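Subgroup meeting minutes
Present: P.N., E.W., G.H.
Scribe: E.W.

1. P.N. recapped why we're keeping a running log of single-chain structure predictions: easier to compare across weeks, and new members can see raw inputs and outputs side by side.
2. G.H. added today's entry (223 aa).
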Amino acid sequence: VFIAQSRASGSHRDVEDEELTRIFVMIPKSYTEEDLREKFKMYGDIEYCSIIKNKTTGESKGLGYVRYLKPSQAALAIEECDRSYRAILAEPKNKSSESLEHDYYSNNTRQEPRGNTLSFCGHPEFCCFEKESRIQESVSKRLSVVSRLPFIQEQLFALFDLVPGLEYCDVQRDPHTNSGYAVIQYSTAASAIYAKYKLHGFEYPPGNRLTVLFLEDGSDSSE
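Output recorded in log:
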């Protein structure tokens, strides 16, 4: 697997430094930086490890970064590490969306949704949506997800599984195009509404916007 560099990017070294060598992981809150290094050193030479902490209490948020010397080592760590770490490539430090990384896997944050960040709460049925988010279309428990890039089953499942109640994620491939299409179903319409609200237009991976729409599932949408 090769990672291509965009022509619009800066030098190859800049891209390598910012986008291809640093991974973002979900970890137990008891982990120290040494624990994190110990778990991920088997995949390559680590430049540094850091744990995201609460600025007030100094307690770990259960999220961290691991920076490798080579992109191949970061890719190996993402592929080979335990799935519970939910490892992905981290956003470049110089992008304003770094807050996305901080909240990406945190189900316990309660801040108001803004921009392109994810802030999921445990019970989407009781979440308050902003006025402009009120759904005017026929809702259901099933969603279609369309992308100009093909999906990887495990990655898309991990993304939509951030909203409680995911029942299945079915990635479908069109042999004639390189676009991505998937069907997502939740146990409740409330979860599906929340997933659509948070993920329609979301950039995953960065630069690739997702289109999320409701699909008829045979249920009474008036509920």
